[in-house]
Task: structure prediction
Amino acid sequence: MINYPNVPRTIGAVVSRRLATLAELQTNLGQTDLHGLLEIIAVDSYNERVAAERRK
Result:
C-alpha cells in the first residue's frame, strides 16, 4: 500500500474516508476530534470485517 507522502497517516485516513476535509482538520477540528474520527474508522472497519466473516 502507498502512504500519503505529505500528509500524516491519521489525517489521510480521516480525509480519505470523507469524515472531514483537510481544511476542517486544519481550522475547526482539534486533536480530540481527529482521535474521535479515527475511532469511528476503527470500529466501522471491525464491524465490516465481522459482517463479512458472517456472510461466508
About this structure: The first helix runs from residue 9 to 16.
